Design the sequence.
C-alpha cells in the first residue's frame, strides 16, 4: 500500500518537475520583466510613505534643501518633540490626550467588533432558525453600504440619540460591520458540522461552542478582522461628530497640523508618521499569522 | 444545526411552527442580538431612512416638512452641480472600479508565482497605501503649484513644462490628479481577498490540469484559477463598487471642498456639502438615496455579469 502510494507520489512529482522546468525555460525573460514591473509599480506605491518617514527624520537644515534628498544625513527626533510642543502651545489639551483617545477607541472597537461579529457569524453559519436566510441576504447587500456612504444619514440618527460629542458616536457605528460579519461567516462555514455536533453531544452550550470550538478554528479570519477593524478605527476622524477638544482623535489633530501647510513640514510629517506606523505594524504582524494559519488550516475528509 | 430535534414538533400550521422554531432557537437570537442592534441603528436605519427624509425639508432644528418630490426634482433638473458630480463620480467609478479591480487581480496573480518572502513583501507594499489616510502631505509636496513642487521641478528640468503647473487648482488637472491618488489608495480589501483566493486554490487542481493537458499559463488562468476563485472575485467586486461610488474624501482633503469649479466634485462631496456644511438634511438624504440606488443597481449588474461567467 505504502509503496503504491509512494509510486503515485513519484509520478506526480515527476510531472510537476517537468512542468516547472518547461515553465522556467520558457519564460525566464518574462519572469524578470514581471519582477521589474512589480518593483516599479511598488516604488510608486511606497514612495509617498517612504518619503514622509524620511522627511520626518530630517533636521531643519535638510528639510528645505532643493532639490530634495531621498535620504537623511543626520537623522533627528526633533520633529517629534516639536510636535508635542506645537500641540501644547496651540490647544488647551496636550497631544497625549489625543493619542490616548485614538488608542482607547481603537482597542474598544477592535474588541467589541470581534466579539459581536464572532457571535453573530457563528449563529448565522451553523444554526438554522426562522429569519437566518433573510439576515444572510441583508448582510451581503449591506456590504455595499460601508460607513463612508452612510455617515451623513447616521449623523442624523446619532443626533436623535443624543450621541453627538461623546465617545459613543465614534465607537458604536464601527462595532458591527457587515464586512466583519461576512468574512467571519464565510470562514466559519468551512468548519465541519461534525465538530459542532460533537461539542453539542458533550453538552456544551451555543456560546461555549462558539468560543471554544469554532472561533479558535477560524484564526485567519480573526486576524483579517483585526486588520480591518484596527485600520478603520485608527483612522476615524471625529468630523462633524465631535467638537469638544478633549474627545478628538489623533487623525483630526494631524489634519489640523497639516493645514498649517508646508512651512511647518517637519512637524507635519512627524504627525503623519505617528499616524502611519501603527496600522502598518499591525498589518505586518497579522499578515504573517494569516499566511501561517492559512497554510495549516486546511481540513479535508 | 440547532436543537430542533429535541422535542416532537406538532405541525399545526405555518405560523405556529415558525413560532415553535423561534422558541427552541432563542439562544441563537440572543447571540445575534448585539450585532443586529448596532447594525440596525447604524447601517440599516440610515439607508432605509434616506428615502422618507428625502421627501422632506429638514434642517435639524425645525420639524421636517413634507415637500413631496421637490428635492428629487431640483436634484435632477435644477442642480447643475449635481450633474457635474454625477459625471465625475462615473469617471472615478470607472477608474477606481473596473480598472483597479483588474489591476488588483493582475498584481495578485503575478505575486502568487513568487516565493513566500516576496509574496509577503509585495502584498504589504501594494496594500500599505490604502491603510494610511494621512500622507496627503507628501502628495501636496509633490504636486505643489510653485516651481519647488517636485513634479513641477522634474518636468521643468526635463523641459516638458516652461512654467509651473497648478496641479491642485487648475481645473484641467484636478480630476486626473485626484484619480491617480485615488488609484494609489484603491488596493484595499478587494486586493487582499483576491490574494487569499489565489492562495486557497487547491494545488492538486493544477496537477490535474497538467495531466489533462493544459499547456500554458493563460489556459491555467482561465480554466482553473478564475473559476475556482468565484466567491473571492465577487466579494472583491462588491468592495470595489462600494469604494468607487463613495470616493470623495481623498479629493476633499487634497483639493478642498468644493474644488475649483467643482472639477473633482463627486456625489459624496455633494452630499457632504449639503449635509454637514449647509445642514439641508432633506436634500442631502435625497442625494444619498440616489447614490444608494445607483450602488445597488451596479451591484446587481456586476453579480449578473460575473455570475454568468463563473457558473
Sequence:
Amino acid at each position: 500500500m505504502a509503496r503504491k502510494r509512494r509510486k503515485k507520489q513519484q509520478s506526480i512529482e515527476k510531472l510537476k518537475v517537468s512542468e516547472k522546468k518547461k515553465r522556467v525555460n520558457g519564460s525566464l525573460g518574462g519572469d524578470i520583466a514581471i519582477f521589474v514591473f512589480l518593483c516599479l509599480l511598488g516604488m510608486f506605491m511606497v514612495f509617498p510613505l517612504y518619503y514622509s518617514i524620511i522627511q520626518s527624520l530630517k533636521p531643519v537644515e535638510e528639510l528645505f534643501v532643493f532639490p530634495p534628498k531621498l535620504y537623511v544625513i543626520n537623522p533627528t527626533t526633533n520633529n517629534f518633540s516639536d510636535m508635542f510642543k506645537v500641540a501644547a502651545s496651540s490647544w488647551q489639551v496636550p497631544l497625549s490626550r489625543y493619542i490616548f483617545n485614538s488608542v482607547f477607541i481603537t482597542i474598544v472597537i477592535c474588541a467589541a467588533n470581534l466579539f459581536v461579529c464572532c457571535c453573530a457569524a457563528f449563529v448565522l453559519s451553523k444554526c438554522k432558525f426562522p429569519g437566518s436566510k433573510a439576515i444572510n441576504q441583508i448582510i451581503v447587500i449591506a456590504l455595499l453600504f460601508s460607513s463612508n456612504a452612510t455617515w451623513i444619514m447616521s449623523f442624523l440618527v446619532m443626533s436623535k440619540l443624543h450621541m453627538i460629542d461623546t465617545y459613543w458616536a465614534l465607537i458604536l457605528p464601527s462595532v458591527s460591520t457587515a464586512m466583519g460579519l461576512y468574512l467571519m461567516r464565510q470562514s466559519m462555514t468551512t468548519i465541519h458540522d461534525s465538530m459542532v455536533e460533537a461539542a453539542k453531544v458533550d453538552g456544551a452550550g451555543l456560546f461555549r461552542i462558539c468560543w471554544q470550538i469554532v472561533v479558535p478554528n477560524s484564526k485567519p479570519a480573526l486576524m483579517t478582522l483585526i486588520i480591518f477593524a484596527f485600520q478603520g478605527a485608527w483612522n476615524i476622524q471625529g468630523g462633524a461628530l465631535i467638537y469638544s477638544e478633549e474627545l478628538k482623535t489623533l487623525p483630526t489633530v494631524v489634519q489640523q497640523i497639516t493645514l498649517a501647510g508646508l512651512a511647518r513640514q517637519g512637524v507635519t510629517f512627524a504627525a503623519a508618521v505617528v499616524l502611519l506606523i501603527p496600522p502598518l505594524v499591525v498589518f505586518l504582524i497579522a499578515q504573517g499569522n494569516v499566511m501561517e494559519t492559512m497554510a495549516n488550516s486546511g481540513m479535508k475528509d | 444545526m440547532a436543537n430542533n430535534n429535541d422535542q416532537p414538533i406538532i405541525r399545526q400550521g405555518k405560523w405556529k411552527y415558525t413560532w415553535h422554531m423561534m422558541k427552541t432557537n432563542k439562544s441563537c437570537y440572543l447571540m445575534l442580538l448585539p450585532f443586529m442592534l448596532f447594525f440596525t441603528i447604524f447601517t440599516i436605519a440610515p439607508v432605509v431612512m434616506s428615502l422618507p427624509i428625502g421627501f422632506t425639508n429638514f434642517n435639524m432644528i425645525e420639524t421636517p416638512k413634507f415637500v413631496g418630490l421637490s428635492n428629487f426634482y431640483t436634484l435632477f433638473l435644477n442642480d447643475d452641480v449635481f450633474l457635474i458630480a454625477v459625471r465625475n463620480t462615473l469617471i472615478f467609478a470607472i477608474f477606481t472600479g473596473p480598472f483597479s479591480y483588474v489591476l488588483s487581480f493582475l498584481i495578485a496573480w503575478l505575486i502568487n508565482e513568487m516565493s513566500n518572502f516576496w509574496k509577503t513583501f509585495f502584498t504589504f507594499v501594494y496594500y500599505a497605501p490604502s491603510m494610511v489616510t494621512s500622507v496627503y502631505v507628501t502628495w501636496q509636496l509633490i504636486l505643489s503649484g510653485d516651481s519647488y513642487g517636485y513634479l513641477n521641478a522634474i518636468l521643468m528640468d526635463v523641459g516638458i513644462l516652461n512654467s509651473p503647473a497648478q496641479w491642485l487648482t487648475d481645473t484641467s488637472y484636478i480630476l486626473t490628479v485626484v484619480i491617480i491618488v485615488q488609484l494609489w489608495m484603491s488596493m484595499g480589501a478587494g486586493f487582499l481577498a483576491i490574494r487569499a483566493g489565489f492562495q486557497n486554490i487547491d494545488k492538486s487542481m493544477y496537477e490535474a490540469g497538467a495531466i489533462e493537458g493544459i499547456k500554458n499559463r493563460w489556459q491555467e488562468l482561465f480554466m482553473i484559477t478564475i473559476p475556482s476563485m468565484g466567491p473571492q472575485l465577487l466579494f472583491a467586486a462588491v468592495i470595489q463598487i462600494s469604494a468607487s461610488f463613495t470616493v470623495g474624501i481623498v479629493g476633499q482633503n487634497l483639493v478642498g471642498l468644493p474644488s475649483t469649479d467643482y472639477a473633482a466634485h463627486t456625489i459624496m462631496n455633494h452630499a457632504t456639502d449639503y449635509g454637514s456644511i449647509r445642514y439641508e438634511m432633506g436634500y442631502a438624504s435625497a442625494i444619498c438615496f440616489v447614490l444608494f440606488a445607483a450602488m445597488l443597481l451596479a451591484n446587481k449588474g456586476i453579480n449578473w455579469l460575473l455570475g454568468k461567467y463563473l457558473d
In short: The first helix of chain B runs from residue 14 to 24. Residues 70-310 of chain B form a domain with the MetI-like fold fold (CATH 1.10.3720.10). The mean pLDDT of chain B is 81. Strands of chain B lie at 56-57, 65-66.
